[in-house]
Amino acid sequence: MAEDEVRYAVWGSAGHAKVLCCLIDLRGGRVVALFDNAPDAVSVLDGVPLYHGEQGLRSWRIQQDKVDDVRCLAAIGGARGRDRLAIHERFTVHGLQVADALVHPLAAVCSTSRLGKGTQVLALAIVAAGARLGEACILNHRAAVDHECMLGDGVHLAPGATLCGCVSLGDNVMIGACAVVLPRLSIGANTIVGAGAVVTKSLPADVVAVGNPARIVRRF
Q: Which pTM value belongs to this model?
């Protein structure tokens, strides 16, 4: 291992884990351990062990002589921002460090934007001037966050989702594939916007909205 190589521990071993592990490799890191709560989960990487649940994390941590060079990430996509944040907390309890934001080489992130810990910006995604993203956010492929948008913790933008300028998203919001949120609107915490929706008015917390224009179809 090169002296400056960063080792990663990743929680999750399904589809998003494959994407995240590829991104880690592109950034010159190396995944050394995978974790998953599912008892039937298997490792998505040849030669990288998978540990199950809290007991598995404890077992792996005890085996490590050194963890200063290990950074941790949650590979759980979709409307599961709370779960990603809980995993960050779990890693921290065990004396591990959550990784800084990880940005794909083919993404465009303005130098005046800010990205929280554990946030993941995938290929062809854009983060424009003055945008602020919280912790444990996921910007999937081709997602766009325009100037001065404010995203809370645990937000996920699916592939092709677009936030126009000055949009505000609460914690754990999920914006579906190719959905569009028009400028200067706000969306409350935990709300889900369906794929292809066009949000033309601000939305409250804890709802599901679909369609063009987006309308509320369910409340949590």
A: 0.95
Q: Which backbone phi and psi does 213 adopt, to 5 degrees?
A: -75, 155
The active-site residue, picked from 16, 88, 104, 147, is: 147
On whether both 157 and 108 belong to a single domain, the answer is yes
94 is catalytic: no
Take residue 189 and report the two structure tokens written for it: 């915490």
The structure tokens listed for 93 are: 């309890």
Query: Alpha carbon of 205 to those of 62, 77, 175, 198, 202: distances in Å?
Result: 41, 20, 13, 17, 10
The answer to whether the beta carbons of residues 32 and 8 sit under 8 Å apart is yes
Q: Do 147 and 48 belong to one domain?
A: no
List, as one string, the DSSP characters of 139-181: E-TT-EE-TT-EE-TT-EEPTT-EE-TT-EE-TT-EE-TT-EE
- Closest-CA residue to 125 (of 113, 142, 110): 142
CATH of the domain at 46: 3.40.50.20
**Rounded to the nearest 5 degrees, what angle is found at the Cα of 90, between the Cα atoms of 172 and 48?**
100
Task: Give the pLDDT means over successive 10-residue stretches in the chain (220 positions).
Answer: 74 96 95 96 96 96 92 96 97 96 98 98 98 98 98 98 98 98 98 98 98 97
Q: Are 186 and 163 in contact (CB under 8 A)?
A: no
Rounded to whole angstroms, how far apart are CA atoms 135 and 130?
A: 16
